[in-house]
Design goal:
Blueprint: H1 6-46, H2 50-67, H3 80-96, H4 104-107, H5 111-134, H6 138-155, H7 168-203
Length: about 200
Amino acid sequence: MTLKNVKPSLNKIAKSLEEVQDSREFLLKNTREIIILCSKSIIAVHKGDLITAKKNLKQAGTLLKKYKKKATGGLSRYLITPEQEFVEAACLIAIVEGKEVPSDKKLAVMPESYVLGLLDCVGELKRQVFDKIRMNKIEEATRIFEIMENLYLQLYTFSMYDKVVKEARRKIDVNRILVDDVRSVITEEKRRTELIKILQKLEK
């Protein structure tokens, strides 16, 4: 018995692993730009600059499509975070514009990325609600809150898939607190608004 077959096999495996490692490093380094662009897109939404938000999102989408070609096989897991950020930004823009939230197919992302992105979007919607309240746009704040709450309710059952969708349960627990907090604020604000209307009528 000899080891004549071992060396060529190991050489072949080493070459394959080196290629995988290079692709991994490439994805980790270059997908950061996607994450940054999506973050800028979300910031622009909160500033009311939807043109910039869409521009950054489009750039992120172009890069994501490009890097997917590198993420073959098991390497696809390195796209979960950038895809997650992409979903979060895309859905936030859609909700603020009063449009339908895009599907995972429309965004061309993995199921896990889609769920995690939607979960993160709930937190951004809280900020939108508070911003609208500060601007005295109660109806718009209520509209966004209703979407926020319904989104949470539809995602709630995904806590059972926590072993598959990493951090799903933790994010859902956080979202429950966020929804409860915003509901209290919305309720109080509606009461305040109604009281002001009553007082204004009495003054006439």
